[in-house]
Specification:
Number of strands: 6
Strand content: 15-25%
Strand order of the largest sheet: 2-3-1-4-5-6
Shape: globular
Bound molecules: guanosine-5'-triphosphate, magnesium ion
Largest sheet: 6 strands, mixed
Helix content: 25-40%
Structural class: alpha/beta
Order of helices and strands: EHEEHEHHEHEH
């Protein structure tokens, strides 16, 4: 039987409650901005197959709960992630101030080579508290890509996931053929803003999955 995709990548979203992780995922997988999106309980997942550079890529997207009480559950999803999207809300400074705590979690629980992307969400809001340059600088300091998005207006959401897929393909290919020189990997996306990262927690896993098209 022929597989309908060449690569399967696991992408995990983390970050404070209310920053818009679920809205980003639903925008990407379902093309909508859900009214009255409720807090995520535990972890949700969605699947979407995308085509990048003529390859079919299956993205398995794990959307974790930001609420503190779910932390021990969400931690168990870090390990298998190929990419981690760390999200804050550009209109809510405290969500940015928590980033070092999230990085400590990532450091502790994720694979050291995980692709890390910092995302400042809700750019449609006019009450911005975190300047773009501050987010950018933070990302740079911590070896992460950076992108600002609006799940509401669909700004940069497709780009976020497609660039992740492209970078992961690149990494996978470099693994197939031993690289002549190790360049650190993160340098080749090149786009302006994108400058520069299982088991038991079944609370609602599987119940709301596979929302995307194939
Ligand atoms: N203006 C604006 N509001 C957004 C955007 N994305 C999400 N929101 C709103 O922010 C709130 C929280 O969104 P969620 O996607 O549920 O946030 P979350 O990060 O998944 O929260 P937890 O599941 O509790 O961790 C909702 O009221 C959304 O409508 C955005 O891009 N712009
Ligand atoms: Mg959520």
């Amino acid at each position: 039987m022929e597989m309908d995709y060449k690569f399967l990548f696991k992408v995990v979203l983390v970050g404070n409650a209310g920053v818009g992780k679920t809205c980003l995922v639903r925008r990407f997988t379902q093309g909508l901005f859900p009214p009255g999106q409720g807090a995520t309980i535990g972890v949700d997942f969605m699947i979407k197959t995308v085509e990048v550079e003529n390859e079919k890529i299956k993205l398995q997207i794990w959307d974790t709960a930001g609420q503190e009480r779910f932390r021990s559950i969400t931690q168990s999803y870090y390990r298998s992630a190929h990419a981690l999207i760390l999200v804050y809300d550009i209109s809510c400074q405290p969500t940015f101030d928590c980033l070092p705590d999230w990085l400590r979690e990532i450091q502790e629980y994720a694979n050291a080579k995980v692709l890390k992307i910092l995302v400042g969400n809700k750019t449609d809001r006019d009450d911005r508290e975190v300047p773009t340059s501050i987010g950018e600088e933070f990302a740079k300091q911590h070896g992460m890509y950076f992108l600002e998005t609006s799940a509401k207006q669909a700004d940069n959401v497709e780009r976020l996931f497609y660039e992740i897929a492209a970078e992961l393909i690149e990494q996978a290919r470099n693994k197939e053929v031993p690289p002549r020189s190790e360049t650190g990997g993160l340098a080749n996306l090149g786009n302006k803003n994108f400058s520069q990262s299982n088991c038991c927690a079944s609370l609602n896993v599987g119940m709301s999955g596979s929302g995307g098209n194939n």
